[in-house]
Amino acid sequence: MSSSVLIGYFDNEDKILDATRAAHQAGYPVHDVYTPYAVHGMDEAMGLRPSRLTYVCFAAGLLGGSLALALQLYTSVVSWPLNVGGKPFNSLPAFIPVTFELTVLFAGLITVAAFLARSRLFPGSRRLTLPRVTDDRFALVLGARQGEQAHHAVEDMLRRHGAVELSWKEMPS
């Protein structure tokens, strides 16, 4: 299944920021914005909510730390208790390095996996490719509304905000 999208190309970041803000305020569905580098304020112009990936990272780190502590406590106290230098079996300072390492490992791997799954960047996914945006152009991809009148209205809006090129394209959804 595919949908028709309008791609507006711009030659600087101020123009695309204004066009994105205007498209969002006019109610056009903003599929994505492609820029050669990160543009400050673009997430607000697109109307994106703050990312929840930090909560995933925190929960994954908590899971990794908890599993590391539980495993070390079980092996040191219950499964294989060894008296080393008269220290207690559940000596917490000895568990810190492994706990830290597993916390960082779980947080990193699970956060990357969650990011890839949420962004739909898994193998076999088809994404719109715009080669000029890695060079010198900025692109704003808007969803299409039905009707010839709506197409002319959105094209006029993008031209008023400085679009240097417009093209319609079918995009896999």
Distinctive features:
alpha+beta, 173 residues, 50% helix, 4-stranded antiparallel β-sheet
Description:
There is one protein chain. The chain is α+β, with helices and mostly antiparallel strands and 173 residues long. Helix content is 50%, strand content 16%. Helix 3 (53-79) packs antiparallel against helix 4. The chain is elongated, with a radius of gyration of 25 Å. The mean pLDDT is 88.
Class derived from helix and strand content: alpha+beta
Head-to-tail CA distance between termini: 6 Å
* Topology as a string of helices (H) and strands (E): EHEHHHEHE
Helix proportion of residues, in percent? Answer: 40-55%
- Give, in spatial order, the strands making up the sheet with the most strands: 2-3-1-4
Overall mean pLDDT: 88
